[in-house]
Batch of 3 targets.
Target 1
Amino acid sequence: MKTIQAVSYPVHFQDKAYKELSSLITKNGYSTIFILVDENTFEHCYPKFIPNLDSEKRIEVIEIESGEINKNIETCIGVWNAITELGGDRKSLLITLGGGVITDLGGFVASCFKRGIDFVNIPTTLLSMVDASVGGKTGVDLGVLKNQIGLFSNPEMVIVDVDFLTTVTEREIKSGMAEIIKYGVTYDIKLFKEIKKNKGLHINDLIFRSIEIKNEVVLQDPKEKNLRKILNFGHTIGHAIESFYLESEDKKNLTHGEAIAIGMVCESYISNKLLNFPETKLNEIKEVVLSIYDRINLLKEDFAGIMELLKHDKKNVNGQVNFVLLNDYENHKLDCKVTEDLIVDSMEFYNF
Amino acid sequence: MKTIQAVSYPVHFQDKAYKELSSLITKNGYSTIFILVDENTFEHCYPKFIPNLDSEKRIEVIEIESGEINKNIETCIGVWNAITELGGDRKSLLITLGGGVITDLGGFVASCFKRGIDFVNIPTTLLSMVDASVGGKTGVDLGVLKNQIGLFSNPEMVIVDVDFLTTVTEREIKSGMAEIIKYGVTYDIKLFKEIKKNKGLHINDLIFRSIEIKNEVVLQDPKEKNLRKILNFGHTIGHAIESFYLESEDKKNLTHGEAIAIGMVCESYISNKLLNFPETKLNEIKEVVLSIYDRINLLKEDFAGIMELLKHDKKNVNGQVNFVLLNDYENHKLDCKVTEDLIVDSMEFYNF
């Protein structure tokens, strides 16, 4: 696959990517290469990656515990101390090898260490390939508030190697599919139709087109002042549901994609009510979502708790929850205010 | 005094500054204004500042404990939580009111909160006015390692109001003088000669010229690849001595300026040995330093501990300590390697 050129760095695919990585390392004369992994990617991805790393430089592996729960500043302090103890300096390179937690946290760690060292992202899940690989968002959670602490900061390059997808579960693959559906309904309806009619579509093509779309959006609006907000479609309600399930001890966690899929159904419903988003299309989105993901039963008694979390959404200003909604496929409206009643209705619509 | 235009923001002086701040607040429509202080600046500077803040916006004060020892990530987490609990959003403004700890830490806190909110620096010590006000360096310490975690990030504006200097001690004023001496010997020898011949020179002029010089240097080399390294003159040995005294329980702490002044004498001595920096000028620097600061007796038994800290200097690459040295006044050489023996000799030269 061809390279995609992002704002200030390239996204390389497959074998070509590793040649480019070696060139980068040679060109920039790094002193040490740090590789950030979790226990899963160290076991399953690191052995696939390391034969491709053609370099004589000193290599040090830093492992953190997997899971969103560890995506916090305390973990960052641990990594900063590890890099320091291992003699990291301003000419060090950090390679992140993992899902969104590793790439988001690793990018933040690198960007703040001695006011910034270079980093390269190697996403190993479908979600991190199509979402976290482009766009320059890095960060960690503050308590239950997702990505509350972070930066816009770009890697030197991103490497997308679909072979890593053999290391993850079917459920994790589905988690990434929700973002691809989002790119489809907000930006390129052909992509959505492909998913609807043909579940066997080659994953490589879905990934490539998704990264292309995200890159086009981010190039036009890197700091999320306007167009980039469409990438939040489904995420306002979706994030709140995800956090609520994460906090609730008696519920099993939802993946990011499972929560965002519900969020897209809800926000399509709100779009129908407020902006006349066509009902046939609303039903089409719900149908595709329910063909991929098991239906979750959102309990009435949980609505208040989900609403409370919505009020902490990063996009809020002056206490107002801001939604991006759809007038139609590929046609959005930013900064829509929505009443609590309508949000509750939308969750009931998802339920039935 | 005229406004100085830095890379992407202005440095305003005195009364004009407060008018500009009010305009900024009106123009950008901030939701809330957070003011970061320590217990000293809350008592002495906040009452001077607040009558000048002409705004109807909600104002929230966040206080942290004073002192370099609190310039760490744990303090940042406390401030991030406070901003969150007080309803801070992406349209919040953070005003830092204090010395270098407040401005460095506050700039970092703002730059990472929800991927960056606006901040305005109001330095209240001579050191932070002439050093921290321009240049975009923000950050905190990691253990004893100074500014190990941080970013280059620019405020919306800097306000320099010399009236705040009435709130600080003579010793703190002297701490700032070391940076002005540094600007003199590395960049504008007239400034150094003024300090030498006339201790009564108007402080306003010294501050204005110092900020002008720092700004000229930073504009030419914002990321410290070349020229900006001259601002580290005296700081390589100076920082190590400062950290060593901070760590040693049986010694009283040195101010930043007291340590940097010693560092400048030592590094001038090394310049004389390695680059033939003229001996008369070396003696002139030592004489001016000793006319301002009490002589500290550096103990032979402490040299090894100071040397150990030198090895963690942020500027090091591949374990090599990098010095910026002087060929002559206003004439420097970057990236000089220096042996341990010569560093020891230089500390002995300072002692006698």
Target 2
Amino acid sequence: MAESTTRQLYTTLAATLQEIASLSQGLHVLGWDQQVLLPSSDGATAARGKALAALSGLVHEKSTAESFGALIEELEAQPDLDEELTVVERANLKLAAIDFRKNKNLPTSFVREYREHTSLSHAAWVKARKADDFPAFAPVLAKTLDFCKQYAQYVDADRPVYDVLVAEYERNLPSTRLAEIFSELREALVPMIHTINAAEHPDTAWMDAIHWDVKKQEELCKHIAQEIGFDFTRGRLDASVHPFTSGFNTYDVRITTRYSATHFAEGILGTVHEVGHAMYEQGLPHDLDGQPVGRALSLGVHESNSLFWENFVCRSRAFWRHFFPKIRELFPDIPDNTTADDLYAAINVARPGLIRVDSDEVHYPMHIVLRWELETLLLNGEVEVDDLPRIWNERMSNYVGIAPPSDKDGVLQDVHWPEGLVGYFPTYTLGQVAAAQWAHAMREQLGDLDELIEQGEFKQILHWLNENVHKKASVPESADALLEETVGEKLSPKYLIAHLKQKYSALYGVEL
Amino acid sequence: MAESTTRQLYTTLAATLQEIASLSQGLHVLGWDQQVLLPSSDGATAARGKALAALSGLVHEKSTAESFGALIEELEAQPDLDEELTVVERANLKLAAIDFRKNKNLPTSFVREYREHTSLSHAAWVKARKADDFPAFAPVLAKTLDFCKQYAQYVDADRPVYDVLVAEYERNLPSTRLAEIFSELREALVPMIHTINAAEHPDTAWMDAIHWDVKKQEELCKHIAQEIGFDFTRGRLDASVHPFTSGFNTYDVRITTRYSATHFAEGILGTVHEVGHAMYEQGLPHDLDGQPVGRALSLGVHESNSLFWENFVCRSRAFWRHFFPKIRELFPDIPDNTTADDLYAAINVARPGLIRVDSDEVHYPMHIVLRWELETLLLNGEVEVDDLPRIWNERMSNYVGIAPPSDKDGVLQDVHWPEGLVGYFPTYTLGQVAAAQWAHAMREQLGDLDELIEQGEFKQILHWLNENVHKKASVPESADALLEETVGEKLSPKYLIAHLKQKYSALYGVEL
């Protein structure tokens, strides 16, 4: 039987997408190498910059070629699409078309100007933060917001600006849904946080007396990564200043992590977090490698994987009970009377803090809610950039229970806005919300999650995620759609709220 | 003053060459990463293969574009070339034109068929070598030689086949020159080798009793690399199964090395050898990065750098005297009565051996002379592939003083022919010959070389090479031209012969 025109066109499309993906893989490897291995001389950075520019120019050329656009349109126009293509293939075509049109709609000159601006913006932020001088950064940020509005205009003039910006990171999640989720969270968390802040915190001074040898931490982290299911034949674990995960394809997923000799938990929590991201990438369907539909669904879903492993596995009492014998063996100066439960308590201390990235499970979401409120207010024109420090400090006081003594540790923290990433912050908390939903569903389907963890039955947990999240890749249209399919309910913060209430009531002996 | 047409054309040419070089840099990084870091799964290799294929396809496209060829021709036709362009720029144009025409003359189908053949050939060789079955490999090798002849026909039908093949690695060194150099060497070395073989070898059993801790070796090698002049801000030193050096550009030059717990010297000699290659790459002119004229002149000149540092620095008595305190500190079970001179003697033992890569300074060149003789005889049709084992064994006996018990350790050793590299072997010995000429010139210009080494004055040595070899890059037309310019004489084996005679007479207490 001869192949249909539709099938032939689809085969050509898939091959073109694969070629673009292969070239992009090259770009990603060059970027990874730059972050992890590049020699320190300025000349090395400059030469690598030229290589990245040359290659990304070619990728852009291929991604926006007239012939590529014509191919997409011809395929879209086929009357027998629904019969000839599978659901996955139709989703792939749809995503390819969205990517293509977005790239096409953005004028090259605009992309260049915006890139130049964010590079200047980053430099201005570094300087302003160092000098604790928000007013110096304010006009730069105002210009970033103008660029964001223009961007949204080019990409989709019919949708609200913030929806278009968020969609860059989180597919099809409108502002109205964000407002529902974040309001419910805020309402529940703020009183909890004030109760916890007023309670007595466990004593963790004993941890400072121990020599947390960095080499031993590395050994422990590799051991943990291996045991919870990271496949080292399809990935690497290296050290770098800023931990991150790169999935070049499902067979080559690389984590970097860092170890601190004074903060024992940082390396472990960070590694497990990145392993969570990495196991998502390793769990995506091999046969869709190189196709848009084979990618991770969204940043929120990505973060739901890393935060599930970090918060629901690594921050559990069961986890520390399981690994305690190994930890004692590696760090022999842990006092004899110390137990796994002491470690568990120490690692879950929830003190109000100024810095988002150092936050615990309870306070963290409020840092994000605040960023989301500010992004919304700024784009709606309800707040001016100059007002940010004042509003930041007021709301931090209300939401987290602490106000920064200076903007440096207030609104000037975090590289996202300076890098032009507006609409990105919400994905962290969407991930935390979804992670609680995965945990809830696992408890219903696999039984006592903590027992599985304490017994080291990580395979069952990973298998659940593989089947229910990873294998679906980008076929569902949104995080909401994925969750409805898997756990029967859209994104809903009630499971996260219940989890935090239960966990911290017990830890702090207070009623939440 | 307006820019001349010639100047404008040259600027465009340089930018085009830079873009091709930047993309090629991407290819090299992907290749390096594959050899050093890639996860072990087959899927990772396959995905990387796709990325390499996509990118090398693009590089080939750019390198053979009609518009690029037209630009070269237009520039070549300018009447004011000699006034408008510098010597370096004219050399750059010439090299770019040679590269372009070679790429253009080779039909794509031929390149693909040849690549497919060498890949099969490599696999057939692995199998044949394992089974010690030369006849199984013979027809594959015969086909390789046919491909080589065709290749030479495409590239330059007017020159002898072997000249064209050698030119791929060693610019402008005709067969007649190779014959002069190698005959003189053979005549001098063969009697020396037989005298040394018959002499008493120093006792090295004491070395086997020492625990040569691999971590300590790594520390030592990094220390040595740093001290002799490798710039770690413009390079890296990693471990890999097969040591090699990659110069992505003059700011990013990476060495890999390996350490053996039983063969102490292997890691050090190997590291110093690769550092020699790397310091050449780091010493090439920064401002010619990305231009053909900025590349290393030839593989022979490359090897003259690595072998200068390996044979004339690292294998010298002065070197071991200089580093002995450090070595004793790192390896405390070296017996108290052991001296630097004992290490020197142990490392310079010259026993006849079957394997080229394990050979010492005296026997090594004869492995190469034999390969050169066989390549010449095969391409002239004076010898058939089937006769190789017989001739190999006879000549090994005559030249090196030992015949292999099986082809596995005879003509089947070495990956070069199986990978289609014919005309490559001579570069090793050309490098050794030139290295002796550098050493001779340094003695004349800098004074006692051994005293500099013993005092750790490596900077002066590196500076000499920077000024006299590295900075000239590919401006001279050939190794002969470079040597004439620098030491006033073409490649001549007499300095190597004199060096070996003097060194080994003293070491073995024989008259050579």
Target 3
Amino acid sequence: MPPAPGDREARRKDVSEAVWQVLAEKGFGGLTLRAVAAAMNVSTGMLMHYFPTKRALIAHALDLLETRTAERPRRARPAEGLATVRTMLLDILPLGPDDTARNRIWVSSWDLALADRGLAADQAARYTRLRDSLRPHFVAALARGELGAGAAAPDQLAASAVAFTHGLVVQALFDPARFPEDVQTAMLDDFLGSLRAGEGSSGGSC
Amino acid sequence: MPPAPGDREARRKDVSEAVWQVLAEKGFGGLTLRAVAAAMNVSTGMLMHYFPTKRALIAHALDLLETRTAERPRRARPAEGLATVRTMLLDILPLGPDDTARNRIWVSSWDLALADRGLAADQAARYTRLRDSLRPHFVAALARGELGAGAAAPDQLAASAVAFTHGLVVQALFDPARFPEDVQTAMLDDFLGSLRAGEGSSGGSC
């Protein structure tokens, strides 16, 4: 008898969870049917029903990463301007275990993406969307007089904020003891503080 | 007759060049004996003399990356303080083809390094050295009064500068048209300008 639809759905979730575990531990470089099968304690043959090719497995992994990133819990965004930017960037940083796993998998995906024209274009588009999502809050910060008179254009501020945040992600992933939550947060606050009008590098929070 | 020592040395250089080409194009995820052999138009059997295992190939690739990074041409460092920091960070950014290839290979190596305890420790130590090399110039910048009164400690400024730079590297690798040399340089100058004493975000160069 074929499994009931509910069973198939449950099994599909188990497969996704196992793919995620393998990614979090070994990255895309270590993502194989064998590794996923071992994480689930099933045969690779069983997994071939889900992923007939390595490419299908990678496509599922990238989908999963995209979905889990979109659906991650986020902080409330009560304000506008630099305070909103701060909240959005805190939602990216690897401050807890789930955020750390997600970031670790994103960083891992860059090797894959840089070697594939289509995936590289996807990643470039993802960066454009991220900058575009920050941009209006820098526009608001300018309008509210939060930024220094010589502040760069909102597009460039958004690119700089993404640069700072992702570069901090990478350093923190390699050295979590050097970059615990409070250090990452203080660095973000100093970065944003340095953009503030007339304060130089304030070191304060938004 | 065995090849003369000079021939062996020349062949070794050819092998390294082929490894570099494969890395620049496909990253560590695409680094295989087969790919290197194809780049050299030789048999994989011939390459087995150099790299009996995949691990030996990866070790050579990492050595090559380390060596080529250490030996890359660098800008003169005429001044101290923030001007020196600027020069050091310009020497990291992917402003030309060689710098782009090297950065692309470094970013690719992160997937490998995050999955291997020893390589991750090497990368964490590399980040520590990079921050330590920047630190004295932030100390000098503070002593020279170049930084705002509320400036963060030199350790944290160094970590932020590395974060900003590496995050810019990644964005530029994925979208070189959006981040040509002048945009990267302007972003770096704005970043450093925002740290300057009493200017807020000055947008000027050091």
